[in-house]
């Protein structure tokens, strides 16, 4: 059984990361079970292992936290659901690419409950929404906005970090970075798409979709 834990309020990043690493260590030794933590952070930027300094365009705006997850710069803040996913991939196939694919599938299935079509894009980790309501790009292709970010790390085949889905964050906060190093596409949220979705609504959809996508460990 995967333990689900909801953290109330705005969880401080450094303390939450420390607690997550402690849980991962206990999962790796068999002292604790797999877990998913649902939370929100105060406004901040995180820098993944591929972050480029030039993509932090407003370094004094919010705290910046270097982190060991994959990826580049991303934003966390109120109105964004963060799900930290601590699964034992030693029991789930030891296939990192498949795991990332399943995280994307989980997000896509969750968004589908709100009639939002989330899509993958080659070379762009995360989940994207085609914006037919916006003018196309100069080359005529439709604009696409990112609605969910994915960044993970493994330690002794136990995953940590995870996904973030925009429910109703302040999208202007993304202007202090080049999100995930991509400058020719934007960022959106469920509310920005015109859907009055609440955080509890999303949490229920996340839990319903999780077991369908991940199932139980062997």
Q: What brief labels describe this structure?
A:
218 residues, alpha/beta, 8-stranded mixed sheet, 3-stranded mixed sheet, 11 strands, globular
In short:
The protein is of the alpha/beta class and 218 residues long.
SSE order and pairing:
Elements: E1 3-10, H1 13-28, E2 35-40, E3 44-47, E4 63-66, E5 73-76, E6 80-86, H2 96-112, E7 119-121, E8 124-131, E9 143-155, E10 158-166, E11 186-187, H3 199-214
Parallel strand pairs: 1-2, 3-4, 9-11
Antiparallel strand pairs: 2-6, 3-5, 6-10, 7-8, 8-9, 9-10
Helix pairs in contact: 2-3
- Our count of helices gives 3
Helix content: 10-25%
Which structural class is indicated by helix and strand composition?
alpha/beta
Shape: globular
**Total number of strands:** 11
Instruction: Provide mean pLDDT, rounded.
Output: 93
| Low-pLDDT runs | none
Description:
By secondary structure, this protein is an alpha/beta fold. It has helices at residues 13-28, 96-112, 199-214, and strands at residues 3-10, 35-40, 44-47, 63-66, 73-76, 80-86, 119-121, 124-131, 143-155, 158-166, 186-187. The strands form two sheets. Strands 1, 2, 6, 7, 8, 9, 10 and 11 form an eight-stranded mixed β-sheet that branches. Helix 2 (96-112) crosses helix 3. The chain is globular and about 55 Å long.
């Amino acid at each position: 059984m995967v333990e689900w834990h909801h953290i109330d309020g705005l969880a401080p990043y450094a303390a939450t990361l420390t607690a997550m690493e402690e849980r991962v260590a206990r999962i790796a030794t068999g002292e604790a079970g797999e877990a998913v933590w649902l939370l929100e952070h105060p406004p901040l930027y995180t820098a993944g292992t591929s972050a480029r300094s030039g993509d932090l365009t407003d370094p004094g705006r919010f705290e910046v936290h270097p982190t060991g997850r994959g990826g580049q710069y991303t934003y966390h803040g109120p109105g964004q659901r963060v799900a930290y996913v601590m699964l034992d991939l030693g029991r789930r196939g030891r296939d990192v690419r498949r795991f990332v694919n399943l995280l994307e599938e989980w997000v896509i299935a969750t968004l589908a409950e709100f009639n939002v079509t989330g899509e993958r894009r080659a070379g762009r980790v995360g989940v994207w929404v085609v914006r037919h309501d916006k003018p196309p790009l100069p080359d005529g292709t439709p604009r696409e906005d990112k609605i969910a970010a994915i960044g993970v790390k493994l330690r002794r085949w136990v995953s940590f970090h995870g996904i973030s889905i925009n429910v109703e964050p302040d999208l202007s906060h993304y202007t202090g970075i080049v999100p995930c190093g991509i400058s020719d596409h934007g960022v959106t949220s469920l509310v920005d798409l015109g859907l009055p979705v609440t955080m509890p609504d999303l949490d229920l959809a996340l839990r319903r979709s999780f077991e369908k996508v991940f199932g139980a460990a062997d």
